[in-house]
Each structure stands twice: as C-alpha cells, then as structure tokens.
Amino acid sequence: MRDAPTPPAPTHLDPAELRTLDAHWRAANYLSVGQIYLMANPLLTEPLRPEHIKPRLLGHWGTSPGLNLVHTHLNRVIKARGLEALCVWGPGHGGPAVLANSWLDGTYGETYPDVGRDRAGMERLFRQFSFPGGVPSHVAPETPGSLHEGGELGYSLAHAYGAAFDNPQLLVACVIGDGEAETGPLAASWHATKFLDPVHDGAVLPILHLNGYKIANPAVLARIPHDELDALLRGYGHDPLYVVGNDPATVHDALAAAMDRALDRIGDIQRRARSAGETDRPHWPVIVLRTPKGWTGPHEVDGLPVEGTWRAHQVPLTGVRDHADHRHQLEAWLRSYRPEELFDASGAPLPDVLACVPEGSRRLGASPHANGGLLLQDLPVPPLERHAVDVAKPGAVLHEPTRVLGGMLRAVMAATAERRDFRVVGPDETASNRLEALYEATGKDWQAETVGSDEHLARDGRVMEVLSEHLCQGWLEGYLLTGRHGLFSCYEAFAHIVDSMVNQHIKWLRTSRRIPWRRPVASLNYLLTSHVWRQDHNGFSHQDPGFIDHILNKSPEVVRVYLPPDANTLLSVADHALRSRDYVNVIVAGKQPCFDWLTLDEARAHCARGAGVWPWAGTEDGGSGPDVVLACAGDVPTQETLAAAGLLRRHLPELAVRVVNVVDMARLLPAGAHPHGMPDSEYDALFTPDKPVIFAYHGYPWLIHRLSYRRTGHRHLHVRGYKEEGTTTTPFDMVVRNDLDRYRLVMDAVDRVPGLGVRALAVRQAMADARTRHHAWIREHGTDLPEVADWTWTG
C-alpha cells in the first residue's frame, strides 16, 4: 500500500451492526475455505482427519475475503435502502465467495434444494466445489445471481454498464480485481461514464479491489503512488472513495461509510438529472478497496509469508491430507472464524449472520436481472413487406442491402421507444455501414461535450458508438443477459478483436441451456459488413473473413452463420435472428450496391431451406441431372457464380449447369453434427454424389472442405475463396487476385467436367485472355473492365 490515505477511526457503524456484519463476513470466509478443502466434517464437530480433506485441492482463496466483504456490505445497503441491485464479480476465480454468500442468503438452496442451509447442505456445498460432477471454481452460469463468467478477465465493468443501460432503477455493483484492471478491455471500460445517462439508465458502482498481487506478480494499480492512482480515476471521470486497512472492525466501518457516501452521491446525481434537468456530465463514485490478499488466512506456511502475498492466490496450504502440520494449521484457520458463533448444531446460520441479508428478489442471488430471460419481452419486429424491395426479375436492380436493413431497424427502434429495450452498438461505423436510418428514431448515446458540428448525438440515444470492439461486445452482452435485445454492427475484419469475448459468451449460453432455471435470453446478433470483398479501398489490413471460421468451431447448439446474397434475404435472416433466443447469430452482408435476386416470398423460402437450387440460373433440363454444380455462399461469390453461369450458358449451351446458393453455412454439416445440418440424402440430392462442384465461397476455402469432408461427393468438391491475396485495388481485382472471379470459375468447370477440357479449349483460353485484359485495363484506367462494371444478369 503506497502512500495510501490513513483510514478513519470507526464511527459510522453502531456496535450491533458492526457485530452482525462481521459475523456474516466470517461465515462467508469459513464457507469459502471449506469449499476449497473439505469433503466431510463441515462443522468441525471432530478434529480434522485426512479423509475429511479433498484429494485434489483446487480453488482460489486470495480474492475470496475481499469479495465476501463486498457482498456483506452490499447486503447491508440493499436491505437498508430497499435497492434493486445486481453485482458483477470481476476477479477471476472468486467462485467460493459468491457461492458461499448465495448459500447464506438462501438462494442457493432454493435453486438447488439438496444444498440447503443445514449441515448436509453445507457438506454438499463443500464437496461439490471443483469436484467431478460438481461446480466450477469460478462464478459461472450455475451460480445464482451471476451474469458474468469469471474464468476470463477484463469484461466485468463493460458487462456492468451493459446491465445498467435502460434500467433506471438498478444499481450495478462491479468488483474489479487489480489483475483484471491491467487488461485492455477493462482499461477502456472506465470510459463508459461518458455513455451512462442518469435519466434513463441505472447506476454502476465500480469497486476496485487492490489486494496487491496476481498469481505470482505484483499488480500495477496496487503499486503506483496514491496520487497517481487518484489522478487516473479522476481523469476517467470518477470521484474515488478509499477504504484501506487490515483490521476488520476499521475496514467494516470505513467500507460502510464509503458505500453510504457513494449511494448518496448516486442518488443526488439521478435526482438532479431526472427532476431538475441537469445535463452536466457527473463524476460518478468509485470505491477503491485495499485489503491484504488472502486476508484472515494463514500468515505464514513452512516459514514463508502467505497472507498479503502472491502465495495466498490459490491454495495456501497444500498436501493437507498427508502433511499433519498443514492439516492442524488448516483446522486452526477454520476455527479462527469461530463457527460455533455462526451456525447452530444443525448447520443453519444463526440470526446475527443473517441480520444484514435482504429478502426475496432483493437478494443478490435472486435478482431477476441476473436471469434476464425472466424479464425478456418479444421484440416488435415489423412485417418485412414494409421494407422489402421489389424484384420483377433476378439481377435487374441493385440495392445496398444494409441500407434496406437500416429501415427495418429504424422501425424496431421506434417501436421500442417507450420500453427502451433495444440497442445497436458498433465501433463508429453505423453510418458507414449504411444504417443511418436509425437516427430517424434515436440518436447516438453521448454524455460528454458537444460542439456545433456534431450530428445525431443525444443523451438518451440508443445507438452506441465507441471505437472499442471490446466495449461494444461487453455492453451488448450485459444488455442481453439482463433481458433486452440488440445488434452489433462491425467491419468484418475487426470482429476478430472480440474472438475471446464471444468464446466466453458462447460457453455461457451453452451451459445456461442445460440449467433448467436459466431462462432463454435474446441472441447475440452480429452484422458483419464492409466485408473482405469490398475493402478494396482500405486494403489488406481491412480484409479478413475468418470470424466465420472462429464461430463455426464453437458449440453447434449455440452458433449460427448466415450469408444472405441480397437485400430481401438479409431482411429475412435478420428477422429470424432478432426474434431468436440463446444463439450467437453471425450475419455477413455487404453495404455496397448489390443485385436483387429474390422476391421477399422467394427469400423467405430460400432462407428457411438454408440452401437450395436456383433453377432460373442454371441450364439443367431436370432429366439426367447436371454436368456441373456451381455453388456459392455470400453476396460477391453469388454474383461471380451467376456471371460464370451466364458465360457457360453462352459459350457452352449444351452443358447442364446447376446453381446452388447457401445462406445457412451450418447446412453443409451432417445432420448429427449441427441442428441445421443436412442429412446425406438431402445433401447428395442438392450437390450430387458424383458430379464436380465448383464452390465460390465468401471466406477461407478450407472451411467448406471441413464442413463437408464426410460427404460422399467431397472428392469432387473444388472451393474458391479468399486466400490472403489482398491490397488496395479495384473491386473486381480482389476476386481475380483470389481466383474467385467468373472467368476462373468457368475455367474450373472446363477443367473438372470429364471430357470437357479438350472440347472447350477455346472457351478456356478466352477466359484466361479476359483475365489478362483485366490486369492490363486496371493498371491503365484504375477501374474495372466495362464488361464487368456494367454486367447485369440476362439469363
């Protein structure tokens, strides 16, 4: 603790309240230690023997005393003030503490009746922790009152703000570990104060817990001078309150005083904004809590200091079954909490322990906001007929698909104006991605300074733009998990920034689906646009379609990937995604002008199938089947495929060509590998078991091979896609560089249809010549060949 302020003498709490708060905290600490070590003898009714100890000691003690302290004091203010509250527990493996407090407030036993508040329930609580068939060592979906996976650090504060948006009565406390505070996402999350509207949003109370160490190293914010830390937090827009010490009575009193001051300040901010119309951006309170790592645990083990050092991080005493001295030290540690003053002979908590605990849904373990499906309302998505484009014939008219979608999103935003449960997030790209129609229904959330040249900024806006994909993701996750709806619009290449975050969300959803008391929440919907094939102006740095691969590696029951080829299919896919529950939906669609291929009814039918033949695009007569299948997925690959089909129709009219378009990428998987997977019989009927398939795909070509490698006709499959050949160039040159262009697709057909190579040599040469002309043309004119730029479907 460097240059920290001297704590005040205890004056805030009366002796009775101090006694009951300390009893609750000691009980939670006792239960936390018991979970790490014990599988029997939970009340220490006899001396500890080896068989009482778990054979494998797993868990994290170091952060638990601090989390227990915060939980105890949150109970106090929630009960005293009648608050509607939620807590996000940031420190990674703080599971023992949150489980202990859930058991104490009764929510754990209500959720899992075999783990009630008695001796048998306590023994089950201890035994199941980090035990085969039990519960994880971190805060997880199985934990009542949780909405944040504690296994990966950095996201707690963003989740907390997401939970607070459009929840005006909610207090969201967020405990941030000093290790977590070193991560990039958490560092950016302090800026969320510039987006929190005190009128329409709830409040976030960050509690920065500085216990000094990570696993084996000091924590940065715990080792900088107090003045520097204070300046940092004030610079972020916070008003810090400090609680420092290692004497329990002093710290209890100081933390109670700090929480009361913080909540008084929050109440004053909200009253002035809501009643007096004050619009100045407030400095919201933050509590900085400095207590020793592993506080109240062993001071020393085997001659080495433990409490207050990195050695307290996980299991301070090891080998307890076989090491009698360690076992005696563990027993002394447990008895130091005086369990006989905390639990009666049956194992039930005594009245002093429960004096601070709120009732009913006020308990942190029972908050409906931590089980957002309980609060979720259906989203009022408008009839698509109001927004669909007219398609008199395929490929005659162009629209910008995302601009068409923007009209539908505007209607959703307008329809939720009163209930405020829909937001669109993105990194400074809403207008760039052609979704600016949203601004007709709402502005961009902004609480900081404004100047005359600003456009569409609004304190109550529900479009959220910040140039941090981490914040966008974290805000939206917190918003969805607390029972609301949303969409994340992003340039395709930079969705990778949140790869790890979406991993954790997918794991959360997968686990939650298997927990009966968890109610389904709205899906996490990505709109990836400004995609690889139309980043010709920004160049190689902006070209990466690999987010699809990343998502399709994940749990099949949760992930969905859609590549709508035009405006009406995008509307149909978006309608489905916005109405869905418990999925991660990835939609990849272009913002540049794109040909309209399908009417709305045709688009709906095609999207329902997920993959299908476009008979009007091919030349097979329906009798003997095709000679070659031209398959495609994605808007640009679809256009190149249809252009190739047109060339084959003109140059090789006798060739029977089938055109297949895929919207739902999971359809390529076998039926047993994904809920949307295609049975082999259906796949063979669509793609044939023995004819060459030339597949033009939006992303990396090996994904198609991976999805379809078990199919009968896989050896006949040839995939063209992005192969890391990117630069700043013309739109058509991007597909030529990656061999996805129409001319190469025709050459592939000639090469792979048996016997065609010799008969169609002149056609193949003409296609190669066209590619050569293309290279010369763009270098002279800087634009694409007129025959490409002016192409329309005439089949």
Automatic annotation (TrEMBL):
Cofactors: thiamine diphosphate
UniProt keyword Protein transport present: no
Database matches in InterPro entries: Phosphoketolase, THDP-binding, Transketo_C/PFOR_II, Xul5P/Fru6P_PKetolase, Xul5P/Fru6P_PKetolase_C, Xul5P/Fru6P_PKetolase_CS, Xul5P/Fru6P_PKetolase_N, Xul5P/Fru6P_PKetolase_ThDP_BS
Domain Xylulose 5-phosphate/Fructose 6-phosphate phosphoketolase N-terminal: 13-374
Protein's GO biological process: carbohydrate metabolic process
Annotated ranges, domain Xylulose 5-phosphate/Fructose 6-phosphate phosphoketolase C-terminal: 591-793
Origin superkingdom: Bacteria
GO MF term (any one): magnesium ion binding
Signal peptide coordinates: none
Listed PROSITE patterns: PHOSPHOKETOLASE_1 (PS60002), PHOSPHOKETOLASE_2 (PS60003)
Keyword terms: Lyase, Thiamine pyrophosphate
Enzyme class: lyase
Enzyme Commission number, as recorded: 4.1.2.-
Transmembrane segments: none
Keyword Acetylation assigned: no
PANTHER family noted in UniProt: PHOSPHOKETOLASE-RELATED
Family (UniProt): Belongs to the XFP family.
Protein name: Probable phosphoketolase
Species the sequence originates in: Streptomyces chattanoogensis
Classification lineage: Bacteria, Bacillati, Actinomycetota, Actinomycetes, Kitasatosporales
